[in-house]
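Fold this sequence, please.
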Amino acid sequence: MKYYILILLCGFSNCLFCQSLELNYDFRHSIDPGRNSKNYPSLFFEYYKGKDSGSTLVKVQSDLIGEKNNMGKCYMQVSRSFRFWKPKIFLQVEYSGGLGVTEPKEYSYYLTNAFSIGAGHPFQWQGAFFNVYSCYTYSPYKKPSHDVLFSFYWYKGFLNYKLVFAGDFSVWTRNKNQGDAFTAGLTGKRGSFFAEPQLWYKLFKDLSVGTRINCYYHVVSYDNVFLIYPAVGLKIKL
């Protein structure tokens, strides 16, 4: 699951630095109670530093889905892009992983590490910023998975950037058989899709209110169904 637009802006500015903290409230239980036991808040922290030669992105997402809204899942992504040449094609390396706590806790789980390397191309069109990214990903399951991932990012400001429409979508594959008892006997690859279009309105200099729409296919469920879960939130620029 790839995140947010700041990674592409390194192609358009000499230097950019940003940190933000975001609090969302996810309504997925209200939308789909059969698959989700509760609505819950989520915390997002993002650090970004970029310039023409490359960028660094660190993102941490914590879902407060545990008992009494304790932290129940944590996801981290670290990405570094760079170039030593004139064309704006960036080499990118990335790590992602995390963990989750269930009730009962005996069934807690890992979000398996993923190591990626690929290339991205940022560009502008009609006053909006875009980035196309494609990579090879290695996931060290008991039966390791070698896969491809494609992501597309966008960022568009309105009303002198008081209103921002941003987001991304990603398509990737993983082995159906991951070498454990649960997936034994499965063969081939499973394709997955994730998108998170977002709309933010700036209330004050460093505070925005907005919404993100989480879209899943073969991510939070292996059923062949497209899931859409909205959330509302506040974002503070640190």
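Helices lie at 28-31. The radius of gyration is 18 Å.
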